[in-house]
Amino acid sequence: MRYLLFCTLIFLGINSIAQNNEKYDSVITNIYADTLKSIQTDLHQNSNKHFYLIKLKEGFEVIFEKQLKPQIKRQLNKKWFVIEADKNSIEQNEFIEKYFLANNLWKFSSTLLHNKSKLNFNKDYIFLIETSNAISLENFIDQHKTEARILTKRGEKLFRIKTSISFVMRKLINEEEVVSVDVKLSSPKEESVVNDYDNSVNDINLFFAKYPTINGNGLTVSVKENLFDTTDIDFKNRYKPTTLNSNEITTHATTMATLIGGGGNSFYTGKGIARGCSLSSDNYVVLLPETDSVYKHYNISVQNHSYGVGIENFYGSDAAAYDLSMIDDAVLLHVFSAGNSGDLTDTIGQYKNINGFANITGSFKQAKNILIVGSVDSFYNVTLLSSKGPAYDGRIKPELVAYGNEGSSGAAAITSGTALAVQAAYAQEHSNSLPANTLVKAILINSADDVFNPGPDFYSGYGNVNTYHAVKDMQSNNFFYGTVGQDETKDFNISLPANAKNLKITLVWNDPPAQTNAYTALVNDLDLQLEKASDHERWLPWVLSSTANIDSLNQWATRKRDSLNVVEQITIDNPVEGNYIIHVKGYDVSTSSQSFYVVYRSDTLNTFEFVSPAKNDHFTSGGNSIFRWNSTYANTSGKLEYSIDKGVTWNLIDGNVDLSKKYFKWTVSDTFCLTLARMTIGSDVLVSDTFNFSKQLYPKVGFNCDDSVLIYWNKVDGIKNYKVYQLGSKYLEPLSTTSDTGIILHNTSSPYVAVTTAFNNNENGVNSYTFNYTTQGVGCYVSNFLADLNANNNAFLQLSLGTTYDVTTVQFQELTANGWNTISTITPVTNTELNFEDNTLHNGINNYRAVITLNNGNIIYSNIASVFYFGNNIFVMMPNPVPYGHNFTILSNSSDSSTVVIYDIAGRKVLQQTITETREDIPVTSLARGMYIVVIYNNNKKMFSQNLLIE
């Protein structure tokens, strides 16, 4: 019960304590010092180890951390630590200014410490427990099964336990094997649905054009959230079932899976980056990675996480678990969305109350080895809601951004798809083996385009994902692998030509997991330097100020030694020709060695490449489109033109385009044609690949008969041919080409079809939506046939045909006692909408049908449509006479409840039933043949009377 005293304490953001301000010392000691136990009376057994809360003397922090690193259990700020030691070593340590016995609250995460006084003391919550002895913890919980139960176990260290804060405070926290305790108050939430599409922001369209054979075939991605729609035609025959998925299907999950690996069957916007990969699902109820064996069993090489919880700025055991996951499985890459809390402010970390910074959504996203991705719009602006860094300890997060107008979910999915493409590019060159996750991460970061501030920043990380450059760089093999130990340096040589531009070098390593609740997460600190061989000039990596001040966090990066991040990057905009040496040093390596990857790239001066349009791209006719490009010209302006006659003549779009913006918005002419674009820069003329102005067709079903289906569409001026596609085993496949605006299909293997304009054999316009012709509401010529009683008390008949193709005659018929009687004939049939008004109704049910006669003599019948007619009556009784053993029906034009009574010819009541519907079946199967009298009452008033004959 001794820790109940702490339940009313308020956590005041220990990480933000000013180092030289003594008034905050009392805050730390009030929370973490065990004031109920005296050092003098309890620690006379000097050989026993205890947990101590200690404060260091000024200037000894680095030396102390190196000397006592294994004994440090938690660092609270620059000077305050919790360590495990005996009294003698504490008293004899010259670096320690003061010390206290520590209570066990140091095991609490900052979230739990902040919220414990707000929790209902006896209500059960889900706690994440890290232990040093799994068997001991399991036995302990088993002994207290009435108060706590284990929900999930991950590996030998992590448990999700459902219990109360009362049990945690009274018992659990005091167990020696318990290393850390965190509370999970928030369920994961999907971070927006992506309803728009622009695959040119991340050069995805250019990747499609340049690398059509790299599609992720043979790879498997896991989408960790709810289940995506596994029946979606964009995933046909590529869904990989597992035992991990949720039973709840959501649109958000389907969108994420589509962005990553959609087949493009439904429409071109359904084409994912890795359209050949297999897709699996993993439930996100448990916010921990799966075990290494699970990922390997299902061959999962990328897992996408487009969800978040609240802002959590600490290194939790879940973050450590994800760091370890990427070490245990050297090819597995975890990609997370940054979150959609970019306009919110943290309330408890060292960056508390700094608006717009440090609002990444989830402690698991504070891991070092994973990728965190924020979002940009179509014009490379970081969106307001995209969560910003830094991480809790000042590290750069997010590492990347990608397109996501409505949030960072789609940005993460784009990055996951790009990661699969990079893996596939490597596998293509290395006998289907997969690259290390550190290499993939390094390639993605090094190939990204700088946006927002120059160099890395806490808004966009190291830049905007560039799918095309990432794949190109992986295939270029511009990377090195190495390992270093303490104070060891590895050197790598590169040579740059005279026309090199934009040199970029990135170092990445998978760092061992830090202690849970570590003050800074970095364990092994490597250093990157670049040296010019000829004159020994050196460059250091770009480093951001992590000082908890909004002005500091907004500062541009400067070159200095990095002591926080597991990613270090050096750039030189205009490198001189010559040989360069890349140095990687083990500055502070606590393990025997640390492996790493270094990747590098450079552009060539005075080059220009269209990103949009790329080959076979579609600019929407009459709509808005965006030209995009990559340029290394010193010139800042160019002249943009287009041609629709293969370059014979050119039409001016703009004579003074700002090349530095990298994009130009334009309204396309309303025409269908093949097109070229060109940019003139000085005397250089740069021409695009062939693309087109087009827009989708909207095919309809004319008829869907047993032996044939008619698909038709509107004619497009200037187009001579159209192509029809059907869904094959995985993707759309060509079915037929026609010069007509319709086609009759026989015995198709799939009911899913799409139509596009064809400019020639190889180049098409944009496809129509793919549709299932059996679900379009059109039968064999008949879309629908309706009959209703109109205001004139006549039957109004309406027939909708799917097409008039091959139709010679349409007849409307009425069912009479002598059979079907034709009441109207229409010929020739020139409209698909036909109607007729019948004024010869009889009381009761009037049945109608339509009869369609084709050129070949075949006859097609519509469904039967009925009209109830009462004349001047309230009730109609039918049939009369009624065959023996059958029921009869009473129709009512009133919604009031009534009572029907049947009397035999002698006046005896033989049946009574309440009528509550406008059509009521009356059971008379038990009555004998003969004459009866039917009377209907409403509120005891006779409303209807008629004889009934049962024969």
Q: What layout of secondary structure does this protein have?
A:
Elements: H1 25-32, H2 39-42, E1 49-56, H3 61-67, E2 72-75, E3 80-86, H4 87-91, E4 96-101, H5 110-115, E5 124-131, H6 134-143, E6 149-154, E7 158-164, H7 165-170, E8 178-184, E9 189-190, H8 204-210, E10 220-224, H9 251-261, E11 278-282, H10 292-297, E12 300-305, E13 307-308, H11 317-328, E14 333-337, E15 371-376, E16 400-403, H12 408-429, H13 437-446, H14 467-476, E17 479-484, E18 489-496, E19 500-508, E20 525-532, E21 538-539, E22 542-543, H15 550-553, E23 558-559, E24 567-572, E25 578-588, E26 594-604, E27 608-612, E28 618-620, E29 624-631, E30 637-643, E31 651-658, E32 663-667, E33 673-681, E34 684-687, E35 691-694, E36 700-704, E37 709-712, E38 721-727, E39 732-738, E40 742-745, E41 752-758, E42 771-772, E43 782-789, E44 795-801, E45 807-816, E46 819-826, E47 833-838, E48 844-854, E49 859-861, E50 865-869, E51 875-878, E52 888-892, E53 898-904, E54 909-915, E55 919-922, E56 930-938, E57 941-950
Parallel strand pairs: 10-11, 10-12, 12-14, 14-15, 15-16, 28-35
Antiparallel strand pairs: 1-3, 1-4, 2-3, 5-7, 5-8, 6-7, 9-13, 17-26, 18-25, 19-24, 19-26, 20-21, 20-25, 22-23, 27-29, 29-32, 30-31, 30-33, 33-34, 33-35, 36-37, 37-40, 38-39, 38-41, 41-42, 43-44, 44-47, 45-46, 45-48, 48-49, 48-50, 51-52, 52-55, 53-54, 53-56, 56-57
Helix pairs in contact: 8-14, 9-12, 12-13, 12-14, 13-14
